[in-house]
Amino acid sequence: RQADTLLAVADLNAYYGESHILHGSSFEVPRGEVVTLLGRNGAGKTTTLRAIMGMVADRRGSIVFDGTELVGLPSNRIARLGIGYCPEERGIFASLDVEENLLLPPVVSGGGMSMEQIFTLFPNLRERLRSSGTRLSGGEQQMLAIGRILRTGAKLLLLDEPTEGLAPVIVQQIGSVIRTLKEQGFTILLVEQNFHFASTVADRHYVMENGRVVDMIPNDQLADREDALHDYLGV
Ligand code: ATP
């Protein structure tokens, strides 16, 4: 049976001013799967997430989400269709406390998580409810950033390097949250540098080089393809 495709990116090109960054990238994210974008620094992973979200002004090609073409739509419309983006820098407001940060984005699509459900997923956040953004650890900030998009009702989560700079025990917690979200039916597209972590959460991996997807590796073939992956990533 062909997996049901939630997001289909085809021949995606993206430009920052005169710089041509994505060169005809194509890949698919099946509904209910966790999919990673792997690749060296500068391969175009972050730009891909930003292009999906409509945050790169000049993009060409096709990005179909649940039957709707996203190229040409502004970011707020794309968010309202049910896509949540968690940027690498996390975007936590330093002067707001945890609850205020959680309440900030509007609920864009029915069926978002309640605060109670978010606290079940991230018990730390309940304890830190009145702490301002600046007082949170890196791990707590990451959890808050993910919790915040879960409140909106997004069903496709775009996560940019959620484990970056976090201690191993926190990385494991993020991993278990991602697996729980998958069990709950969320679809996740994850940019990762940590390919060991990626192998513990993902169903498939796309490898990016020079602005395009050059390979797809199902997670169960990752061990067999490890040498190729090391070449791609230069590790
Ligand atoms: P990294 O892990 O370093 O973020 P990446 O694969 O996510 O790598 P991108 O951040 O998508 O790569 O960057 C791809 C290319 O686009 C790089 O050459 C980068 O310098 C360039 N780039 C990124 N943002 C901008 C911008 N705002 N203006 C111009 N060029 C940019």
TrEMBL record:
Transmembrane segments: none annotated. GO terms for biological process: L-amino acid transport. Pfam families: ABC_tran. This is ABC transporter ATP-binding protein. SUPFAM superfamilies: P-loop containing nucleoside triphosphate hydrolases (SSF52540). Residues 7-235 form the ABC transporter domain. Belongs to the ABC transporter superfamily. GO terms for molecular function: ATP binding; ATP hydrolysis activity; branched-chain amino acid transmembrane transporter activity. InterPro entries: AAA+_ATPase, ABC_transporter-like_ATP-bd, ABC_transporter-like_CS, BCAA_Transport_ATP-bd_LivF, P-loop_NTPase. Keywords: Amino-acid transport, ATP-binding, Nucleotide-binding, Transport.
